[in-house]
Amino acid sequence: MTTTPASVLSSVLATGRTATEPALRDAIQTYLSPELARIAQYHIGWADADGRPTSTWSGKLVRPTLALLSSRAANGETAGGIPAAVAIELVHNFSLLHDDIMDGDTSRRGRATAWKVFGVPGAILAGDALAAAAGEVLLDSDAEGAASASASLMNATQRMISGQGADVSFEQRGDVTLAECLQMAGDKTGALLACACSLGADLVGADRALVQRLAAFGEHVGLAFQLVDDLLGIWGEEDRTGKQVGADLRVRKKSLPVVAALNASDSDELAGLYLSSEPLSEPDVQRVADLVERGGGRDWARDEAARQVAAAEECLAAAGIADAVRHEFQEVAGFIVGRRF
Fold it and tell me: How far apart, in whole angstroms, are the C-alpha atoms of residue 21 and residue 299?
């Protein structure tokens, strides 16, 4: 019987989750204090606010799956990449805990966010503990590339934080360039995906050329994801995105399509509306969306997303890995980018 693409993707993600989840649970119990572990387990979805196990967790563990694939790309085995899979998921959840606080989000996956349940200090400390645990997991693995992988993860984490900081600073600026915005997106979104795609290979001591090509693949996938996410933040349908049409415009987010249009010629009307301190009315929001499109922001972002996807494919092809692993990388990357359209 022919396997459909959907079933291939489901199988790849299920395998990644099965391999990672027990070790991830163990790491949180081992490296976090009981109180911070309880906050982390609630945040992930394993437990309720009182610490009782839940049966509704549906996390896909996409980044850990990529880390495991990179281990297979290096030596054909999954097991050696498990610490990398755990570490990347710990950092991802550190970022989510802090993002929820910074954004003031009160719900995640249909439940109150951790900071709403346990308070801001507790959620911050739980995030800090997860980030610290990630490095410990890699170094305690005693793998050939433990030191290199730990350094790579910390570098990616620093870039992610830097990108988040730039994103916040852009809110106060009216002169953001497209180059700055691309750098921010690469740091905020691309860095951790680049690390996920290469960390397992790094950990098992793979050739540097392979590690770098896998990282470049993930970097391009991350940028494509951000471009599509930004397009949806303006023109996405509410029943598919869960957000009101034009949601990013209402908060005057300096997203990539907007910045592209602001930096185009004849952008005076757009700048006058978008960079004003006055609230945007509903007609204003629609007018801004029209002006971004007329200024070429929508077409540029679509074209750039396609270019990033093509660049990712080239990097993966140049890595010279087994066809089966390459196809699984493509399935997961397609899910990351394609599910956002």
Answer: 40
The CATH number for 31's domain is 1.10.600.10
Using DSSP, state whether 108 is helix, strand or coil: strand
- Angle of helix 208-235 versus helix 323-338 axis, rounded to 10: 20
Question: What total of structural domains would you count in the chain?
Answer: 1
Q: What is the pLDDT of residue 6?
A: 67
Tell me the per-residue pLDDT of 264-288, one tens digit each, with 9 for 90 and over. 988 999 999 999 888 889 999 999 9
Supply 53's token pair: 């196990």
Single-letter amino acid, residue 49 = A
Give the up-direction half-sphere exposure of residue 286: CA atoms within 13 A in the CB hemisphere: 2
Return the bridge partners of 107, or none.
112
CA dist 206 and 200 (Å) reads 9
Of the CA atoms within 13 Å of residue 53, those in its CB half-sphere come to 2
* This prediction's pTM: 0.92
Taking the C-alpha atoms of residue 25 and residue 46, their distance in angstroms, rounded to an integer, is 9
Joined together, the tokens standing for residue 6 give 């959907």
Using a 10 angstrom Cβ sphere, with 0-12 exposed, 13-18 middle and 19 or more buried, the burial of residue 281 is exposed
Distance (Å, rounded) from C-alpha 199 to C-alpha 193?
Answer: 10
Range of the domain at 317: 5-338
Residue 2: other Cβ atoms inside 10 A: 4
d(CA 328, CA 333): 9
Beta-strand ranges (E) seen in the chain are 107-108, 111-112
